[in-house]
Description:
CATH architecture of the domain at 168-251: Roll
Strand order of the largest sheet: 1-2-4-3
CATH topology of the domain at 168-251: Endonuclease I-creI
Distance between the termini: 43 Å
Mean pLDDT: 89
Order of helices and strands: HHHHEEHEEHHHEEHEEH
Low-confidence stretches: 43-48
Amino acid sequence: MYDLETRKRVLALVHHGRSLNSVSKQTGISRSAIRGWQARIEPLSPTTECVRCLAHPKPPAEAEAYVYLLGLYLGDGCISPQPRGGYALRIACADAWPGLIEACRDAIQRVHPAHRVHVVQNQGCVTVTHFSRHWPCLFPQHGPGKKHHRRIELAPWQSELVDDHPWEFIRGLIHSDGCRITNWATRTVAGEKRRYEYPRYFFTNKSDDIRRLCTDALDRVGVEWRVTRRGPDPYNISVAKRASVALMDAHVGPKY
């Protein structure tokens, strides 16, 4: 429906800082169409070509940002093919954590600086989105169906990065599918019932493989954990030991 010059003119408005909403209202072109054009029209420059598509593939240069983004993707992310080519990486982030939204945007931009990162407002959350032909190269875990319905394994080059930066991986997992809460319990001392409060971390995911990747990383950094069940399902990884919580506080911390 729109010629190439029209599409480039619309994309230029976005590049100059205009939001998708405002550009859509001005031009009468839907936001989804503009997002699709970003994936199909904007060429990759030589400095931002995919490091996994080279004759000798390399890991991403921004290793810490990549490992953090990997944790976010395994928790609350997906990669979707676009109708006319390219892929959209989408990470869901709750409105309650603006710091997480900004950290997610920064990680995506550092890992893949070609094109802009977009934040799409939904009810109660935002979707941090980036379009590229190369997201499946960077996240080979992409595949049809839900993650907990298929095998999730790290490629050897990803495992090396996680081994080098385990805390960034844990931080991404906790920021996506985890939380830090204050738990409480009662104990009777000298006939008097007293309430005790203590901090605790949880990671919750239906995928056995993703939970195993989380616990392997926790083992690597010396964090003690255990499985807590919700009914018959062992979906929760709990960190409650004081020394382990202190480690998590020093390297992960609560969402904000």
